[in-house]
Amino acid sequence: MGSVDRQHTTPQLMNRLRMRQVALLLAIDELGTLSAAAEHLGLTQPAATKMLHELELALGQHLFDRVGRGLQRNVAGERVTGFFRSIRGSVEALNQELEAVRQGGAGKLAIGSIMAASPGRLTHALLQLKKEFPLVSMEIAVDTSDRLLAQLREGVLEVVVGRLAPVEGVDCVFRPIDDEALAVIAANEHPLARRRQLPFQALLDYPWILQPHGSPMRDLIEREFRHHHAALPRGLIETGSILTTMNLVRSSQLLGVIPEAVARGHAEHGMVKRLPYRFGHTLEAYGSLVPRDRPLSALARRFLEVLHGGTQATSAQA
């Protein structure tokens, strides 16, 4: 490939970039090949090749290296793809804002949250927001932090209540809320349910339900196993759903790990037993996460005010 090394001022670059080029690079990233991306966007392969070349000229950087007959994204390509994901997320957020205007200005707020936040401040903030804005539509997605941050990056969610997790292309402002303890739960009739003290080794005699690999809670549990020089149990059930975990635990000898605040409430109602085991490691504090380079709606700003009640924000990159 010939050299395309040049620099542009930001206004020049904005004049040269086209959204169709952004869509092409993201399609290559998701589908793996230029030909598949071209088909997805309804382009011929020559047209897609020309568009990619024009994009590289506009940026003054090659984005791919040739490997055999294919293309492999280089360092510049990785960086540009990350920024283009942010652009797509901003456009998605803009689309949601415009849809709210078309519907009469009532607005919609899309929030993601880990389960640990639900029993306390999150519930209070949502109810307060609903009281102030009765016609507002609210969508609350509950999942692990890494999956929620991926949706935040894509513009599907405007605010996440969770933890910083290693998700590519997520640059956030993080405001801590609270620490989160974990609890091991079992069925009321479980053989360990009546124990007053419980060494870690006793837990290894039973099958486990854990969150998927990559989530902060799963990472902590794996550290706990390594600390005790124990391998993860074979035949794991993996789910990010606390409801599924609760249902499976109540009907079997499976052990589950869920947030202490959630376990306490269910144990008080006689649904499960909190086993007398305490983890030697703790999770980092959870808090609110919003994109650093994307404007927030008035609804999101008010939600954060109620959620935090004056705590300070810090910038962080996941």
Give structural notes.
This protein has 318 residues and is an alpha/beta fold. The protein has 3 domains: 10-73, Winged helix-like DNA-binding domain superfamily/Winged helix DNA-binding domain (Arc Repressor Mutant, subunit A, Orthogonal Bundle), CATH 1.10.10.10; 86-179 and 286-317, Periplasmic binding protein-like II (D-Maltodextrin-Binding Protein, domain 2); 182-274, 3-Layer(aba) Sandwich (D-Maltodextrin-Binding Protein, domain 2). It is built from 12 helices and 13 strands. The chain has helices at residues 10-16, 19-31, 34-41, 45-59, 75-102, 118-132, 145-153, 200-203, 216-227, 242-250, 260-268, 298-308, and strands at residues 64-67, 70-73, 108-113, 137-142, 159-162, 171-178, 182-186, 208-210, 237-238, 255-259, 273-274, 286-291, 314-317. The strands form 3 sheets. The chain has a 6-stranded mixed β-sheet, with helices on both faces. Strands 9-8-10-7-11 form a 5-stranded mixed β-sheet, sandwiched between helices. Strands 1-2 form a two-stranded antiparallel ribbon. α9 links the parallel β8 (208-210) and β9. α3 (34-41) packs across α4 (45-59) and α6 crosses α12. The longest helix is centred in the N-terminal third of the chain and has 28 residues, at 75-102. The two termini are 34 Å apart. The mean pLDDT is 84.
